[in-house]
Amino acid sequence: xxxxxxxxxxxxxxxxxxxxxxxxxxxxxxxxxxxxxxxxxxxxxxxxxxxxxxxxxxxxxxxxxxxxxxxxxxxxxxxxxxxxxxxxxxxxxxxxxxxxxxxxxxxxxxxxxxxxxxxxxxxxxxxxxxxxxxxxxxxxxxxxxxxxxxxxxxxxxxxxxxxxxxxxxxxxxxxxxxxxxxxxxxxxxxxxxxxxxxxxxxxxxxxxxxxxxxxxxxxxxxxxxxxxxxxxxxxxxxxxxxxxxxxxxxxxxxxxxxxxxxxxxxxxxxxxxxxxxxxxxxxxxxxxxxxxxxx
Length: 295
Prior knowledge:
Blueprint: E1 2-6, H1 10-21, E2 25-29, H2 41-47, E3 53-56, H3 62-74, E4 80-83, H4 89-100, E5 105-112, H5 117-120, E6 123-127, H6 130-135, H7 137-143, E7 153-157, H8 161-189, H9 197-203, H10 213-224, H11 240-250, H12 256-268, H13 274-287
Parallel strand pairs: 1-2, 1-3, 3-4, 4-5, 6-7
Antiparallel strand pairs: 5-6
């Protein structure tokens, strides 16, 4: 199978490598010529066999809108666009309607795995028609982790469902990171009792009910910088957490833990807290998100 991939940043470039490693031919386009396979988006479209599949992996919002607009004028009826970025699910409705007017199909794919996806595979949550899912299943199988398909891939529903599931996934992620971070701050505060904070978290990695990949990443971060002296406790939020809380409000679903984690990130922008240093370190570990270095 041969697909196009638009956006070769931290995740996109790794996705291209994993796809090619697993037998999917990829023509990639990026505005950075150093990583792009072609000089222009039109060249990418020309390089693909019909019916074409183009996976878009660029920042949500205006940049994704611009790429979809460009593809609308370049693709043909029967072609397929997959948005694998972190777009809001309501954007999917708009993009699908826009492309359908030209006979172009559309799917949304929530993608989790961060900078570790090349090695470990990506968790995939997909929205779209069953026919299109079956058409590009070789792509999904190449990207997902090894093991049973249902443990790393789900066809959630129609267009918008994939990004909705990813939105909730990220809301949960916010809350989990906040819980680990607050535990870190309490342990670190009581050094008169706790003599090995890093070792405590490390010992939780097997057998305990709080073990997880996020815990492993927190241990990695602590081993590299036990006091987080090189990280400022400033944590950005990328949108999905806010959207999750908005959906909770709109549907009268109580989300106190996720909501609190969002507000804690706002607090991080006002003062340098040890807990927020831990959250910043975790985001850097799993997603390669930038941290603010201490001046």
